[in-house]
Amino acid sequence: MTRKSLIRGAAILAAAGLANRFLGAVARIALPTLIGDEGVGLYQMAYPVYGVFLVVSTAGIPVAVSKLVAEQTARSNPSGILKILKVATAILVLTGTFFSAALAVGAGPIATYVARDARAALAIEAVSPAVLILSITSAFRGYFQGLQNMGPSALSQVTEQIVRVSAMIGLAWLLLPRGVEFSAAGANLGAVLGGAAGFLVLLVTYFRLQHVPGSWKVTWPQIRATVAQRGAVSRDPENYMSSTLALTRRIFDLSLPVVLAAAIMPLMQFLDIAIVPMRLAAAGFAPDEITRLFGRLTGMAQPLMYFPTLVTAAVAASAVPAISEALARGDRGTLSGRAQEAIRLGFLFALPSAVGLFIFAREFSLMLRWPAEVQVPLRALAFGTVFLALQQISSGILQGLGAVTVPVRNLAKGAVAKLVVSFVLTGMPAYGIRGAALGTVAAFAVAGLLNMATLVRMLGLSLDVLSTVVKPALGVAVMALAARATYGGVHRATGSNTLGSLAAIGVAIAVYGLVLLLSGVVGRHELEVFPGGGRVTRILEKLRLLRH
User: Fold this and answer.
1) Which residues lie below 8 Å from residue 129, measured CB to CB, with a gap of 6+?
2) How many other C-beta atoms lie within 10 A of the C-beta of residue 242?
3) Which of 298, 391, 405, 408 is deepest in the core (most CB within 10 A)?
4) Ramachandran bin of 285, using left for φ above 0, alpha for ψ from -120 to 50, beta for the remaining angles
5) pTM of the full predicted structure?
6) pLDDT tens-digit profile of 420-443?
7) Three-state secondary structure call for residue 403
C-alpha cells in the first residue's frame, strides 16, 4: 500500500460517512413529521437497545479481521486470508444468532421494565434480525478493509443507509393506519432491510473479484497451489494461523480491547449525567437552568465537536491495515512514514475545524436555530476536536501495531481526567458549564497525548513539524481572517447570519486549501487519489498553484 492508498482509503470512507450523515438527517426530519413524537419515542426506545446488542455481538471483530487480513496480504498468503474470513464469519454467525434471538425473546421484558412502555416490544422485535445480518456484514467489511480496498465497504454502507431510510419512511407510512406502535416497528424494520442490502453488495463484490485478474483471489485452487508450494498453510512466524482454535484466540485477543474502548465512551457520557447537574447545583444554578445548560452542552455543542470525526475516524480505519501490512513486512521506514502521514491528515482537517468552531461559535449556533448561549460550551469544546482526532488516529495506529490494550488504558486515564476536571471546574460559578466542556477536552487530550508518547517510544516517531504544524497553522490563521472579513461583509449587505456563515465557510475552505497548495503541504500525491484528481492537478500546475 502506497501513501496514495492511505489517503484514498480515508477519502472513500469519509465520503461514505458524509453521505450517510445526510441521509440520516433526512430520516430525522421526515420520521417525526410522519409518526409524531409518540411514534419517534417508541422507535428510539428500540434503537439504542439494538445498538448495544450489535456492539456486543460484533465485539470489535471487524478491526481484528482488518489487521489480520493485512498481515496475511503482506505475506502473500491467500489461504490465510480466506481462513481469517471463514473463522471470523463463523464466530459472528454464532454471536449474531445468539444476540438476535436474545433481543427478540427479551423484547417484552425490555419494553416493560427498561423502556417503561410495553408498546415498544414490537419495535424491538422488528429490529432484532438486523443484529445477525450486520454482524456477518462486519466480517466482510473488515476483510475488504484489510485488503486496503475501501470501495466495497463504503458502497455497502451507503447502500445500507439508502435502503434503511427509504424502508423506514415507507413502512412507517404503510403501517401507520394500524397504530403508532406498528408504524414505529416498520421504521425499525428498515434497519433489517438496509443491513440485508449492504451485505448483498459485499457478497456480490466478493464473488465478482474472484474473476478479476490481479485481484486477491481466495479460491480453493489457488489455496491448494499455495499449500503445495509451501507445504504448510501459513508462513506466519507468530503461528496463530496454525489452527482454527489459535486463530480464534488471536481474533478475540485483538477484538476485546476494542470493545472495552468502545464501552468507555458511554461511560464518559454517563459521567456527564452523574456529575454535571450535581456540580451545577453546587455552583448555585436553579434546576430549570441546569437542564437548559446540560442540553446545550450534550445535545448541541458536543455533536458539533464530534462532527469532524467523519474524516478522522476514516483515517483511523484506513491506518489499521496500512500499519499492519508494513509491520508484517518488517519495513520500519514505511511503518513510521504511514503513521506520520495518518497523523498529518488528521491534523490538517482537525485544526481548521477547531478554529472555525471557536471563532464562529455564536454564528453557527444562531444558524442552527439554537440559543446564542450555546457558544459558551462550544468555544470551550472547540479545540477538543484536535485532541479527539489525535486520540482516534493514534488508536488506529496502535491497533495496527497490535498494541490494542494501550488505547484502552489511555482512554480510561482520560475518563479519570474528565471526572476530576468536570467535578472541580463545573462546581465553580466562574466556569459552570464551561467546566464540564473542558473536562471532555481534558479526556481526549490525556488519551491522545499518552497514545502519542507510546508511539514515539515504539517507533521513534518524529513528525515533520513544518509541514504538519507550522504551515497548516499559518493557513488556518489566514483562513480565519478571510472568513471573518467575509462574514462581516455579507452580514452587513444582507442582514442574514445564515448567509454570512455559509459564505464564510465557503471562503474558509477555499483560502485554507489555497494556502496548503502554495506552501506545498498538499501536492500531486494527495490530489491524484481523488476522482478527476489528475485533471485537477494539471489545471493547478498550469495556474502555478501546485508546487512540485
Assistant:
1) 100, 104, 192
2) 13
3) 391
4) beta
5) 0.76
6) 999 999 999 999 999 999 999 999
7) coil
